[in-house]
Amino acid sequence: AVLLVATVAFIAWRTTASLVATLGAAIAITTMRFTLAQTPLLPLYPLMLAAGYTGGYLLWRATRAEGRSRVWLTAGGVLAIAVAPELHSLGQLFYAAPIIVAILAPPGRRLRPTVITYAALLVATLPRLVINLSEGGLKYVRSGRVEWVVQQGDLDLVNQQRNQTPSHVGYLKAGPELLAAALGGWGFVWIAAALLGLIFVPWRVRIAALTAAAIVVGALVVQRPGPFPRYLSPLIPGIAILLGVLLAAIVSQPRRALRLVALPLLALVVVSGVRDYGDGLDRVHTPESARGAGRLQTMAALVGPDSVFGDRAPKLNGNKADL
Fold first, then answer.
1. How far apart are CA 204 and CA 21, in angstroms?
2. Cβ of 133: how many Cβ atoms within 10 Å?
3. If you ran DSSP here, which 8-state letter would residue 63 be given?
4. I need a surface site. Which of 35, 177, 179, 295 has the fewest CB within 10 A?
5. What is the pLDDT of residues 221-240, one digit of tens each?
6. Taking 80 as the threshold, does the pLDDT of residue 114 lie above it?
């Protein structure tokens, strides 16, 4: 989580050169429900997001660099994007980062650099392809999950019957609600504030942001995983940066109409963030206390760390104290 906050703050600083925007983005990503609620349960999510956004930023910088700097920035960006899916399969969405960067690139540095970037990305993913081929095919290229319930299709059945996976159109309709749930209790306020922040960025950035959102939502509509808010997490760092941009615009621009609209929105965002931050800390501390007192931990200690159960059971959150 700390690395994700640092990544968001760094990108906000380098792209806006505004201390206010940087602080606003860092505080926003810290107080979002996803950051506190998911990182204790799924620590690879923030690492995946940090790698993906770092890769996109480095590729963007490469479009404005010359000589060796351009080569090294491209190489670093490609490596970071290649690492993102290894941290979590959702990181495959960052394979679209070169397309987003091409929208933002100066004229004359769009098509050819994008082709070169994808060629380098293919080379960077060769080890994954080789390992899959050595195991008998490309079955696990998209997902490395090999659990029995996944292989037998039981997970899909659980998602459809228990979690009520929506249809393709239903997923599209549920998208805003899922994103709002990932952001916090008043998630729609966060979304409204981020959309307002789009007004204060260059038009190419607006197009890039909307394209990125369309790619993330479109991928989920096609694949239809379980209807969990965390699957929209690739949008969350970008929303945090837009909130920082909005805060900086309020401070630097004296327009009264802007402040009349933006200040109440930001006030609601602050209240929501403080509430969710407190609730998030409670959700983290309560399961930790419960699992420390449970018999599950005693069993895990007897089994030892050499087994999957012995290694992962002590890390489980949310189990009851009497388990």
1. 19
2. 11
3. T
4. 295
5. 887 777 778 888 899 999 99
6. yes
Residue with tokens 């890769």: 55
Numbers of helices and strands, H then E, in the chain? 17, 0
Q: How far is CA 189 from CA 55, 159, 275, in A?
A: 29, 29, 14
How far apart CA 237 and CA 257 sit, in angstroms, is 27
71-102: burial string, b at 16+ Cβ within 10 Å, e else: eebbebbbbbbbbbbbbbbbbbbbbbbbbbbb
Pairwise CA distance, residues 290 & 234, whole Å: 31
Q: Which helix (H) or strand (E) holds 62?
A: helix 44-62
Over the stretch 35-49, which tens digit does the pLDDT of each residue have? 776 666 667 888 999
The Cα–Cα gap between 161 and 226 comes to 10
66 and 109 Cβ atoms separated by less than 8 Å? no
What is the residue type of 20?
Answer: V
